[in-house]
Amino acid sequence: MMTSTEQVQVSGTNPKRLGSRAGSNNSGMESSIFKFKNVNFVAGKGDKQKHLLQDVSGTVKFGRVLAVMGPSGAGKTTLISALTLDAHYGTPSGAVTLNGVALTDKLFKRHCYVVKQHDKHWPYLTCRETLQYAAELYQVADRSNIPAVVEETIQKMGLAVCADTRCARLSGGQARRLSIGMALLKQPTVLFLDEPTSGLDAAAADNIMQEIVRVAKDERLIIMCSIHQPSSKVYQGFDQLMILSRGREAYSGDLIDAPPYFESIGAPVPSQMNPAEHYLDLVNSDFSSEEEVVKLLDTWEERAPNQQSSHGPANNDEGQDGVTGGLRRNFFDDLQIMFRRHFKLIIRDPVLYVGRMVMILISNLVFAFVYWNARDYLQSQVPNKHFINIWFVAVASNMGVVAVYALNDEFKSILRETKNGGLNPFAYVVAKSIMVVPVLWVMSIFALAIPGLLVQDQPKDVFLQASLLWTVIMFCFECLAECLSVWVEDQIFGMLQFMNFWFMCFLFSGNFIESTILYYPFELFYHILPFSYYIRSCTYLNLHDATWDQCTGGPAIGQAICVESGDPTEVLDSLSNIYGVVDSEDHVARDMLVIFGIGMIFKILYVVGVWVKTSKVATIKSN
Asked: Residue 147 is part of which domain span?
């Protein structure tokens, strides 16, 4: 709930439009008609099949607002999901058209917008920045006029008090108003709002709905919203009303026709009572008997008139036929916006990259000091020098599990933007893929510079190669995190799968058991997982050119290696007798290429996942 200082201040006047806007007023869609007829929705199969919607129909014309009301479980959200081609949990059927053209995903992205019940914003962007990027993506005005358009939206949505507050710190009501503000920026032909007043107090809800009604009239938009229990003031602002119960219509028509209809069936609205509350009581089995609710639904089914509105502007103008091409998106415009936005998010997000850099530095410093006595190039310390390199990457790569969680959350925002036609998802994929490589290289500096060079006295002349090798294997795990974030919807389960992969990498690295004594198919894991390639090359880089102490008389008690010549090649060969993954030959370039190839497999799976998920549409089947 919001305090009085958060309440929306809305002007009832129509402000001067700024720049070249992309709304229905200048898209050739200003006299549109949205129709849906005999919409059904069936979930489950066999004995568990359930009809969530049954023959729901309606017509909404330009400049009008249709409110869909009903008790919990009535089918309001299901109807919105079906009409927005987003009901993936069952089978929708019926006919849905815009100006006589069947609604498709392409048509939806060009001319429609849906605000979901649960708000999802970029947590580390401010309200102003969120609206700024949305305005750029929707090309709502000339570039120079966008700040003025954004400021206008901030004022209209009552967001001035939190304009420069990060979205993670917004109240529920502020987040809701930001979502609606983004929708109004696009100025779609059809705007769907699922519970637009959710999280708002009475005063804020009234003002928001006044703004929505004003926009519908002034911009000639079609607005359809589900709403649970509106106040009397909010209710009176609607043009049309649909009452649902048990997935069926109890009434659908103009708001002013509702009282005469209910009076005609013996259920008049009591004086001094909010009509919305009265209608909801009638169709709610918690307040009316099952028989009375079913009778009410059957009565409307028998007496329902033609789904044509008899009031408002549509009475004088039946509307247009066909749709315009709409706004044509430019991939490179989206790409440069993604670069700017996600560079800012990378800098600000304390978890995804910056926080990991700090934690990797701390953990690797701990290992570096634990292995302090291994810093000298003594043959007795060769195994320890081998293991310090393993620890420097093992814990760091394991921290990639947080990326699964963060990227899963991020992808949900990308899905929302793609759904509403605000973004080409592959612009996001390309921008993030390019930016993440230098970020991971910087992360390698945190991982290896102080712990490796300064504390462990590792050779400086191979630091660049070592850091690139570390970057490549972290790229591999980052691509895995991206892949899981898209394909596995449950964040926790995705994180568990990441941990399983990491553990398998550790187990089948060739460091604990040689690949030659593994039974098939376990031996296969040694070749297709990246740790063995990293360990082999990292150990080679740090030990192959070192100057070792002389060792005579054989190894001392507890000492594994004693090469009399101290020759680095012979030291590595001796170490390979203990750890089969070690090799005295230079495989660095090839190993980096193999690790990169494994990462690219995950990257390809990630790109395919983005394509599948962003292209997924719940097509409405014809009855």
From this structure: 17-303
